[in-house]
Structures
1.
Amino acid sequence: MDLESEKSINVFLTNLSHEIRTQLTAVQGYSELLLHSKQSEDNRINSVKTIIRSSRHLQLLINEIIEISKIQSEQLALKNIDISGFEMDTNEKYTKKIDDLLMEEIENYLELTHLYSNVVTGRVLLAEDNVDNQELVSLYIRTAGAQVEVANNGEQAVKMALENHYDLVLMDMNMPVMGGAEAVRILKSEKCKAPVVALTANAFLDISEHSTEAECDDFLTKPLDRERFYEVLQQYLHSSSNEAIPLRSSLLENEPELQDLIEKYIHKYPGMVSDLKVAFENADFKLFEMLLHDIKSTGGNYGFMLITDLAVMIKTHLNNNNKNAVLPLLDELESLHQRMLLALS
């Protein structure tokens, strides 16, 4: 390697290291700010937006690193890469691209959540050791209309899949105790009929070969593409019909003695939604936000996470001054009561 090439690489690595550390500082700092209870709602939203923006920035950096790794491992044909202008901290065009990605991500999230709400039925086993990912993927699954149970590692996943019926298993490939590949081989050897979809952070082009070797039926790469994720759910789960799907409280699975308390909440729920809609129609947004907060909190407390998820979506639209999108979601909140009554019967 000549001196000029070595110098260029050193400049590239210095800039890359700077950008990574800068974005990680933002992610860590704003995440810690979210833990402060005195932070205002506006500041919390700003913190979340900053974390998303920095995360997307990091994803682009990682993609660049992966491209270089592919070249070094001979997984991609060699091509010329101009790194002379890799000065992202002063590149206004690149910064604008990140900002555009942020807004696009927010808009896509809201559109996809509404588009794919309650489109499937079925029972999903999610094998994932990362708690944050457990909550995120579970939210996606519940939004789509399916039920979800979580295993923390491959060993738990094997035990749960063999003892219960699931319509789909989502299997992280890198877990403690027992990895996903080994868990899949055991399930297949035990004639488990549920299709298994691999969840992997491997972004190389030959990922399909790896999932085939592990005997998976399909694969999804991390970070998850939500549209692709919902397409996979629709492929392997049952499409929901026009008939309402019973909405059961998750609390009753382990605490059936709470039945009377849940029933009282269900009968009280229509009045709560009615008051919320009246406040919105009267443009009393201070009262609206207070009532919405109550519905969001009580929905989760009584085991109806779909209510909480919808309330969060409404709040997000309101914060973005997208009031036209609120009314259909209020109607959807109202329609959940019929599904709760069906579960009681």
2.
Amino acid sequence: MADIEDEIREMVHRETRAWNDRDAEALVSIFHPDMVWPWPPDDESHDPIHWVFPQGRFDRERWKAEWQQLFDTHELMHNHREIVRVAISEQQDGAFAVVDVDTMWRSAAGGEFHWKGRACKGYTRVAGEWKLIFHTGLLQYQEAERRVAGGMSLRSLERIPIRTREMGSTTSAWRMIVATAEGRGTITLLDGGSYRGDGVFLGRSQEDLAGAYGALAVSDAPAGPELQQWG
């Protein structure tokens, strides 16, 4: 799983480098041919009833020309991207990355074009190669940022497969990613009830880890649904 997570992170970095270099050819090379890309009209439109569909299905030459026009008419002022989470399917043939984006373009006339918000980038493996197949438009999410306690801020809480030396087999756990003034760390709650700390939480006692996890969790981590809810 760690190798795949690195591959997905590299996909995000490839895209970032393409924007930085204003390289339209490199940009279109990461997309799956069946990619579709709906967008919210603004970063507060979480309800998809209001979303728009300007790009349509991936068309290599059309999309390349549109981005080349952007590159030819705008200067890139900054492009900051932070990977918040990577999730991988149990079959290891699909994954998504949650990325916080802050990108600013400026036209020759001085007009600013600001991309800012959180995106979910979905990837599929095709013939041994990862391709970007879906992408949510940038939206602002404030709920997670408000989950703070004792100088800690919850960044994400996700269900992951994990292999422990003691059990010698793969089980499931909840992994919490936390930001603190000292840096980032993770607290992993195994299904057996024990905790594991990494990063700034490395070496903490079970009591300390349980306290930090409990302070940031909105409620006890729910069990996974027996049936997938399609929608």
3.
Amino acid sequence: MTVSLDRRLTLRALMEQAWQQVEGQARTMLKGAVEGLLLAERDRRVAEATRRGEKVYRWGYTVRKCWTTLWGSLEQVRVPRLRGWKEIGLLERYERHGLDEVLFALTVGGLSQRKVVDWVRRFLGGTLSPATIGAVLEQAQQQIAQRRSEPIPPRRYRALVVDGIYLRYRRSVSQAARKGVLLVAVGVREGGGFDVLDWRGAFAETTEDYEELLTQLWRRVWNRWS
């Protein structure tokens, strides 16, 4: 994303645009995870039918033009179908049980993947194995994880801006969303572009949490030369 440095840009405006980047990355992860879980469920049903001696075939996809989540709309979600069946109808259950909240907490809020895997498995009635769910989540998060860990070249950014964005999100699979802060680090490039470098979910804006975020960034600069 690019902003013009020829005009005044308030800290609030910069962080709002940075938050849009984070939300966009989270929606991409959410779409990948949902489509991956649906595919895994389709393959499980095909394998189960085959073991029973039934002939069940994969039969393309239904495309949902828009699925509204707490973090914006997911467009063109591919829902697999089986021949002779309707689509793998799990999106309504995902929406009803707040899957988007839990996956967002995994990506943004620091919720552990193991806890999310356990939650998803209970939510799906134990039909998918932990290994399958874990593989789907890792694949969905791959791009974000890579961007958050890649080395930062020295002198790429003219300035580093770190600030907190207050929002409500889950910190536990068993508790509702509550108010917290997302500490976001933004690197501003020469010429007006900026990148969201990393973030950290916290209860409040504390010195310790800011230090942890900055240490994570420093390690990425140091790894460039190590």
